[in-house]
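User: For my dataset I need records formatted as: sequence, then structure tokens, nothing else. Please produce one.
Assistant:
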Amino acid sequence: MQARSDSFFTRRMAYYLALLYAGQLKAGHGFDELTPSYGIAILNDILLPTHPTFESHFRFQEQTRAAPGANELVLPDLMELHFVELPKYVDRKTGLRSRLEKWLHILKFGEQYAAGKKLPEDFQDEKELLMAMEEMKRVNADERLRAILEQREKEEHIRVTALHEAERRGIEKGIEKGIEKGIEKGRDEVRGEEKAEVARKMLAKGSDPALITEFTGLSATEIERSKAKPST
């Protein structure tokens, strides 16, 4: 299967086919053991614009054609390349489809049937095709399940990430508040020390404790406590 053909696609196919043919011959085997090899490429693109039909077939063929109308000479049992160009295939809505047309129909519209669309009646006698459709449905269901599981996993990652982000912000906010409280506490302690120093100096000059309380805001107990610390 090939979604789009490139300028070297035919060379690449010929190379793969040659490898397939040559790869049959192992050590100790003779050329008589070689079997024909076939390369089949189903394209969702136009490879041969001038070729009128969706199917093309290439093999080793004699080209001189000595006499007009002579039978084409083909080297059999070697290698063949087959190309199927899906864009050229026009599905027949009515009438009997060939086996190839049925398979091309499935290749072109398989996603719709895998999603639940009912198969046409004339497909019901194709055992291999029905098996292929069951497998396509299974794969399609697996893909849907995988997508659901991947979405759930993604949502879980998002949830955990959000929790981690909230925790990080909470920690940062806590640290910030802690720093603010620490700074404020430090300021209070500095202010307290400054007031205590003022109280000690006023006491040294014989100021009345009531006046010191009025001036510094310290309680009588705090003023008494400041006496124990030496004045700076």
